[in-house]
Design brief:
With 603 residues, this protein is of the alpha/beta class. The chain has an eight-stranded mixed beta sheet. Helix 21 links the parallel strand 15 and strand 16. Helix 1 runs antiparallel to helix 2 and helix 4 packs antiparallel against helix 5. It is globular and about 85 Å long. It starts with 5 loop residues before the first helix and ends with a helix. Its cofactor is Mg(2+). Keywords: Cytoplasm, Kinase, Magnesium, Metal-binding, Phosphotransferase system, Sugar transport, Transferase, Transport.
Length: 603
C-alpha cells in the first residue's frame, strides 16, 4: 500500500475542495509518482455499508485508540520519588490544558464550550491535589490521576445540576492526562489544521461534540451499522460516511483515499476517475442545496417532506431548509442528563420553540422514548438484562405512571397560542389496547390528533386494529428493522441484516399501509426513521403507499430531486421489485439500477 507524506496529503485533501479536475489530477500523479492508469496495481478497496452519500478524495487521520485504564494498584517506578512523579503529573496536566485552550480558539458554538470547560478542568487544583496525595502514598502518576478523577467525578455527579454535567469533563481530562503521561495520542477526534477523512472503529456520542464538519470531510468506521451513532451524526451533518468497513483501521495517517458514501466503498490511491467523481459531487451538492418546499413526484403526486428535529435550534434550521413540517420531534432533549423529571413549565418552553418555527404546519411530537440506549435515572431500570426489549418508550407508563400524562399536559399547553398543527405519537406501541389507552390520555390532555409509532412487528401486523383508536401511524424504521431481524443496530457484524432494504422489513411496511386502508380507514402512514433519508428507498416507500417522509433537514433536497424523477406507477413498480427480491442487497441494487439519477447526482 502506498502512503504519502502527511504534509502533502493534508495539502491535497484541502485542495480537493478547491481545485479543478486538471489540477487535482496533476497533484495525485505527482504525489504517487505514477499515472492514474497504474491504480489497479496499487489500489486497494475496502467495502462497508454506505450510510450517507457523497464522493470525497482526501487524506485520512485515524481515531486514537481508547486510553487503557492503568493496572489496579500500579506503583511508582523504582527510583522515582513522589516529588518527581508529582512534577511530571503537573507538567502533563498543564500540557493538556494548553492544547485544549489552543483548540478552543478555532472552534465555535457547543464545540468551543466543551473544549473551554475541559481545558479548565485539566489543571483544576482540586483534581491535581487529589492525584498528588495518591502519588505521595505510592501510586504511579497514571493510576493516581485515574483514581482521583473517578472520585471527583462522583462528587460532582452527586451535586447534581450543572456540576453533575462537569463529571464528564473530568473523565475526559483523565484520559487525556494519562495519554500525555504515556506519550500516546489523546483520545477523541484528532486535531488538524487542514481537512481530513476521519477513520476509526466507531465514534462515541461524546466525540461528536468537537467534530468540526469544516475539517472532517468524511467518516469511515470499521464497526457500527446503518443506525449507529456515527451513521446518524454523518447524515445530520451531511458528511459522506461508510460504516462496518472491516480493515480500515489498518490504514496509516496521511494515506490518500476515495470515499463513496452511497456505494459504501473506500479506495486507496485514487486515480483521475475518482477525482472526477469527487469534483462532480462538489458541484452536485451546490445544486442540491435548495429544496423548494414541495415534495412531489414527476406526475404531480404530492409527498410532503418533513424533518426530524431534536429541539428549537433544529426546528429553525429545518424550516430554513424548506421542510414542510416536523415528522418527528424527539422530546428526549428535555429529559436526558437529568436526575429529576423536568417541570411542566420547563417542557412548555422547550416545545413552544419548535411549534413557533412551523406556523400553520404539522409538528408531530413523539413522547418520551426513554430506555435502552437512552436511560434516565428517575424513570428506567439500568439493571434490566435486555433493555432494548424492556421498559422503554410508552412502556415506562407501566412502571412510572404520571410522567407521560404530565408530558402530554405540557405539549397541550405549549400548543395553545401557537399556529402549529400539533400531532402526538407514542413510541414502542405493541397492541391495539395500548394504542387505545394512549389515545385516551391524549384526549384527557386536550390533544386531538393522537398517533403511534410502528417500531414493533406486532404493531405492523395489527395496524388495522391499532388505527381504529388513533388517527395516524409513523414507521420508525430503525427499531422496526432491529426487531424484525433480531439484529442489534449498533453491531457492525450484523450491518447486513440491519438495513430497511430487507424484504421482510418492506413487507411489514406494506402491511402497515394495508392496515391503514382496511375497512375504509385511509389514515396517514408516515416514515420518520432513517430510511426516509435514503433517496432510493424513499421512492420504494412512496411506492408502498407511505404518505409522508421525515428526515434530517440535510436530506430534503436530495430526496426531493429523486422523487421528482419518477411517477407514482413507476415508484409502485420499483416497490414491487424490492418486495420480491432475494435479499436486501438485491433489492437495493435492482432499485438503484432503475434510478440512473442516483449515479448522476452521486447519491
Amino acid at each position: 500500500m502506498r502512503e504519502l507524506p502527511a504534509k502533502n496529503a493534508t495539502q491535497y485533501s484541502d485542495a480537493s475542495r478547491r481545485l479543478g479536475f486538471k489540477e487535482l489530477r496533476t497533484i495525485v500523479q505527482t504525489l504517487s509518482g505514477k499515472a492514474s492508469t497504474d491504480r489497479a496495481e496499487t489500489g486497494r478497496t475496502f467495502t462497508g455499508v454506505g450510510v450517507s452519500p457523497g464522493r470525497i478524495v482526501g487524506s485520512i487521520l485515524l481515531m486514537p485508540q481508547p486510553v487503557r485504564e492503568p493496572a489496579a494498584g500500579e506503583r511508582l517506578v523504582e527510583g522515582t520519588t513522589p516529588e518527581e512523579a508529582s512534577a511530571t503529573l503537573r507538567v502533563a496536566a498543564k500540557a493538556v490544558q494548553t492544547s485544549l485552550t489552543a483548540r478552543s480558539v478555532g472552534a465555535s458554538g457547543a464545540g468551543r464550550e466543551v473544549l473551554e470547560a475541559t481545558a479548565l478542568m485539566a489543571n483544576d487544583p482540586m483534581l491535581v491535589k487529589a492525584a498528588v496525595k495518591l502519588i505521595t502514598n505510592g501510586s504511579s502518576p497514571e493510576r493516581a490521576i485515574w483514581d482521583a478523577a473517578a472520585s471527583v467525578a462522583e462528587m460532582l455527579h452527586n451535586l447534581g445540576g450543572y456540576m453533575a454535567e462537569r463529571a464528564t469533563d473530568v473523565l475526559d481530562v483523565r484520559g487525556r492526562i494519562v495519554a500525555e503521561l504515556r506519550g500516546v495520542p489523546a483520545p477523541g477526534i484528532p486535531y488538524s489544521d487542514t481537512p481530513f477523512i476521519l477513520v476509526g472503529e466507531d465514534l462515541a456520542p461524546a466525540d461528536t461534540a468537537t467534530l468540526d464538519p469544516a475539517k472532517v470531510l468524511a467518516l469511515v468506521t470499521s464497526s457500527g451499522g446503518p443506525q449507529s451513532h456515527t451513521a446518524i451524526i454523518a447524515r445530520a451533518l451531511g458528511l459522506p460516511a461508510v460504516v462496518a468497513a472491516v480493515g480500515v483501521e489498518g490504514l496509516t495517517d496521511g494515506t490518500i483515499v476515495f470515499v463513496d458514501g452511497a456505494a459504501g466503498t473506500i479506495l486507496v490511491d485514487p486515480g483521475a476517475d475518482e477525482i472526477d467523481l469527487a469534483k462532480a459531487w462538489a458541484t452536485t451538492t451546490a445544486a442540491l442545496a435548495v429544496f423548494d418546499g414541495t415534495g412531489r413526484l414527476k406526475d404531480g403526486h404530492l409527498v410532503p417532506l418533513l424533518s426530524n428535529v431534536g429541539g428549537a435550534k433544529d426546528a429553525v434550521k429545518a424550516a430554513a431548509a424548506g421542510a414542510q413540517g416536523v415528522g418527528l420531534l424527539r422530546t428526549e432533549f428535555c429529559f436526558l442528563e437529568r436526575d429529576t423529571e423536568p417541570t411542566i413549565a420547563e417542557q412548555v418552553d422547550a416545545y413552544r420553540g419548535v411549534f413557533d418555527a412551523f406556523p400553520g404546519k404539522k409538528v408531530v411530537v413523539r413522547t418520551l422514548d426513554a430506555g435502552a440506549d437512552k436511560p434516565l435515572p428517575f424513570l428506567t431500570d439500568a439493571s434490566e438484562p435486555n433493555p432494548a426489549l424492556g421498559v422503554r418508550g410508552y412502556r415506562t407508563d407501566f412502571t412510572s405512571p404520571g410522567v407521560l400524562e404530565r408530558q402530554l399536559q405540557a405539549i397541550a399547553q405549549a400548543a395553545n397560542g401557537t399556529e402549529a398543527q400539533v400531532w402526538v405519537m407514542a413510541p414502542m406501541i405493541s397492541t391495539a389496547e395500548e394504542a387505545e389507552h394512549f389515545a385516551g390520555l391524549c384526549a384527557a390532555a386536550g390533544l386531538t390528533t393522537p398517533g403511534v409509532m410502528v417500531e414493533v412487528p406486532s404493531a405492523a401486523l395489527t395496524a388495522a386494529s391499532i388505527l381504529e383508536h388513533v388517527d395516524f401511524v409513523s414507521l420508525g424504521t430503525n427499531d422496526l428493522t432491529q426487531y424484525a431481524m433480531a439484529a442489534d443496530r449498533q453491531l457492525g457484524p450484523l450491518a447486513a441484516l440491519n438495513t430497511p432494504w430487507q424484504p421482510a422489513v418492506l413487507q411489514l411496511i406494506r402491511l402497515t399501509v394495508a392496515g391503514s386502508r382496511d375497512e375504509g380507514n385511509d389514515k396517514p402512514v408516515g416514515v420518520c426513521g432513517e430510511a426516509a433519508a435514503d433517496p432510493a428507498l424513499a421512492v420504494v416507500l412512496v411506492g408502498l403507499g407511505v404518505s409522508t417522509l421525515s428526515m434530517t433537514a440535510r436530506a430534503l433536497s436530495a430526496v426531493a430531486a429523486v422523487l421528482a424523477s419518477v411517477t407514482l406507477p413507476e415508484a409502485q413498480q420499483l416497490a414491487a421489485l424490492a418486495l420480491k427480491s432475494y435479499s436486501a442487497t438485491d433489492a437495493r441494487r435492482i432499485v438503484r439500477e432503475k434510478l440512473p439519477i442516483l449515479n448522476t447526482l452521486g447519491l
